[in-house]
Automatic annotation (TrEMBL):
Residues 1-27 are annotated as: Disordered. The chain crosses the membrane at residues 54-73, 85-107, 113-135, 155-180, 200-219, 240-263, 275-300. It comes from the Eukaryota. This is Uncharacterized protein. Keywords: Membrane, Transmembrane, Transmembrane helix.
């Protein structure tokens, strides 16, 4: 393209040899013109490009099948994890890029095939950057719900995505245009667009590192930090580590591609190719890094680790992504008939409760008027595991109110264990504290911003029939 020195375009005297003027060669070839500058990866040849591309083609086919398989599997279970679909789209661009590069190696003079191969190389990598940014956003919203869901932070990612999409369109148009013009001013403008685009790629790939580190530091040094809005499976530390390692490798490839553009251009007709433009560098800093990240995300099940409930919006709305007992990978021993409710949350579970429990001739639910969304049952001591990432469960307040001298629980006239008209239980058990015991159920209290625990024995196997002050029964 434009901007090459006379020594590079002309006789090559400074290098002790002569080579044709690339502009003259391009003009003789006709449209679309062959490139006038050397680029990362060079023009492919049968050896070594075909076998190398064949290996990457196979790996990306496997990765595409894996991510699409998980996407469909999760959709059948009612869990929409769009990033798995994005990963399939990325793998598809790499399948096309490797296939076109193989075809280009057999027809090295076909400029149109070369254009198509370069377009797919440019268009694909940005999907990995965007996916890592979504992971970063979820970590920030989990660690700092009120900051992560604030308006400035919420609109930052859509604005950045708009800039990225606009930039990639400009890059693709610029790359195609460079093969159909010999105007030096136009070629200089295309080079500026490429420099801008690759620099933007490097910045976007790097962004998750400072954002996640700032989020972790802000939580660590904040004495008044709130509980974590935990989501998905696995610890928060593992999620953060996965984001940071992925960002380091992705940014390494992006910085390499940008650095090669900032170096002085070399004529495409120059037989000497700098080592930083070599095919080895192309495959290492492009396809190798990308397939490692793609397969790592597949093996580590990002669809589980970074899953959030569909329609999550606002602080502490990720809690529905908690994996309760009985879900694949978190199976528990058989509990009994009532545990068929463990997959139901909120109004679904309370609806079944209302049909099962009768208070003095009227049917009502212990959880019908409760503000807490109860989510599942486990025979495990749930208090031991859910404090790992910083949020501390508390016994459900309804189980802490006692009637002086009677040892019973306070319940309202609707059957809710809380404030209001009173009825009494006799003989509470130690498990009724709700923090530990053989069977405990966890729920989210949006008013207090904390997890609540209640014993199943107090809701299903009541020790005595309550006496309602309203009905007189």
């Amino acid at each position: 393209m434009g901007g090459m020195s006379d020594a590079q375009q002309g006789s090559g005297q400074g290098q002790g040899q002569s080579f044709p003027d690339p502009a003259t060669v391009a003009q003789a070839h006709g449209k679309p013109y062959p490139p006038q500058e050397q680029a990362l990866g060079e023009t492919p040849s049968v050896i070594p490009d075909v076998p190398v591309c064949a290996v990457f083609l196979f790996l990306f086919l496997c990765a595409a099948a894996g991510h699409m398989g998980l996407f469909k599997f999760n959709m059948r279970r009612g869990k929409k994890f769009v990033i798995s679909g994005m990963m399939f789209g990325f793998c598809f661009t790499r399948i096309c890029a490797t296939t076109l590069r193989i075809a280009w190696s057999f027809y090295p003079r076909s400029v149109r095939v070369g254009i198509a191969a370069m377009v797919f190389v440019y268009a694909g990598i940005i999907l990995l950057f965007i996916a890592n940014l979504f992971f970063t956003q979820r970590v920030v919203r989990a660690q700092h719900p009120h900051i992560g869901w604030s308006k400035p932070f919420s609109i930052a990612l859509p604005v950045l995505l708009f800039i990225i999409i606009g930039s990639i369109i400009c890059l693709i148009v610029g790359v195609i245009l460079s093969f159909y013009t010999l105007s030096e001013s136009t070629l200089d403008a295309v080079r500026d667009i490429q420099l801008y685009g690759e620099t933007l790629y490097a910045i976007v790939a790097f962004l998750p590192i400072p954002i996640v580190l700032a989020s972790v530091a802000g939580r660590h040094f904040n004495p008044n930090r709130r509980s974590i809005d935990k989501f998905g499976t696995g610890s928060m530390r593992a999620k953060i580590l996965l984001i940071l390692i992925s960002a380091v490798f992705l940014d390494l490839g992006a910085c390499w591609r940008a650095a090669t553009l900032y170096l002085p251009p070399r004529a495409s007709t120059n037989p000497e190719t700098p080592w930083y433009f070599s095919k080895a560098c192309f495959y290492v800093f492009n396809f190798s890094i990308e397939i490692c990240v793609t397969l790592a995300w597949l093996a580590l099940r990002i669809d589980k680790r970074f899953f959030i409930p569909n329609g999550a919006k606002g602080p502490y709305s990720y809690a529905g992504g908690f994996t309760f007992a009985g879900e694949p990978g978190n199976e528990k021993i058989a509990l009994g008939n009532r545990d068929s409710m463990r997959h139901l949350t909120g109004s679904q579970a309370s609806g079944l409760n209302s049909a099962r429990v009768s208070w003095g001739g009227s049917r009502s639910s212990l959880g019908r008027a409760s503000r807490v969304s109860w989510g599942g049952i486990s025979r495990e001591d749930v208090s031991a595991g859910i404090g790992e990432d910083g949020f501390q469960p508390v016994p459900y307040g309804a189980f802490e109110e006692r009637i002086a001298g009677k040892g019973g629980f306070v319940a309202d006239e609707d059957g809710d264990l809380g404030s209001g008209a009173r009825s009494h239980y006799a003989a509470p058990t130690a498990a009724d504290v709700g923090v530990q015991g053989a069977e405990a159920e966890m729920g989210w209290d949006p008013r207090s911003g904390k997890w609540a625990l209640r014993p199943v024995s107090s809701t299903a196997n009541l020790p005595a029939r309550p006496v309602s002050t309203k009905s007189g029964i």
